[in-house]
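Technical note accompanying the year-one report. For the benefit of new consortium partners, we illustrate the data format agreed upon in the data management plan: each record pairs a sequence with a structure-token string. No post-processing was applied to the example shown here.
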Amino acid sequence: MSFLFFNRKLIYSVFFIFITLLALKKYIDINPLLFTKKEIKNSNFEKNNLNHNKNPKHEHKNNTVVSPFITLNNGVQMPRIGFGVYNIPRSITKKCVLDAISVGYRSIDTAQLYGNEKEVGEAVRASNVPRNELFITTKLWGCHGYFDAINSIETSLKHLDIEYIDLLLIHEPTGNFVEIYRALEDYYRRGKLKSIGISNFNEEEYLKLLNNSKIIPQVNQVETHVFMQQKTFKTFLENYGTQMEAWSPLASGDKKFFQNAVLGEIAKKHNKSIAQIGLRFLYQQNIIIIPKSTKIERMKENINILDFELTDDEMESIRKLDTGKSLFM
């Protein structure tokens, strides 16, 4: 009898431990903010452990390892250098994207506003590069709320003619962007969107979204270049787990950029172009960059920034160029 009683107690103990572990696992799964750097009021955020099935090569500098991919807050790996197609005419978009892919780009950034999603999709299918090795970003435009955001997502999926979008952003904080983002969250859960985020959101708009949503944006794409470096905002976003991505990383081709004496002097030291110095400055700070060009030689130049590193003094010299002002306002 004592033996049976002992076995029964053992079974009950094991069963109790098992139930406790299950409960603890469930609690952790639904409370990912236990592991975030900041506490957000009224939050109930979700995690997603989707992987983008990348096999990244690494850049070795000064005995450190720098991955050409950024791991977003949901585990998806996004290339740190992409190819932008803003203002590229539809008639040449497919060729430009194919050229970009041929010289090594694996991330392509488009938007509904650009009017060339269809041509980007055609290039993706014609490239013969496996779909899971390409990272496609697009952006919603002109939505007012949840239901037209649903229609807008379906429109992008149709225009691109791909099964899923790697990163979908709200292009600007217009309309009821909380409800628009809720549509992104729903498509994210369905697997149609591998990552979701925002573009051109400032700190106040970002916090409003966070306090009224369940999934932390993976990316915020904002104007960032040597003249508007967004250092404080970058730190702010990082504290909540959102990755900064730079649009117009070459300062929109402004002559002040390409004629800048500081950048020119550093470029001479490294036998690089001014464009490469400006891009490397952002890349070296783990800011995703999406330079644009219609010329294949420029595409090669813009992606060829992994074989050198800016010194601390050079980085500091470039930091002094920051005006904190947009080139577009």
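Partners are asked to follow this layout when depositing records. The CA atoms of residues 83 and 108 lie 5 Å apart.
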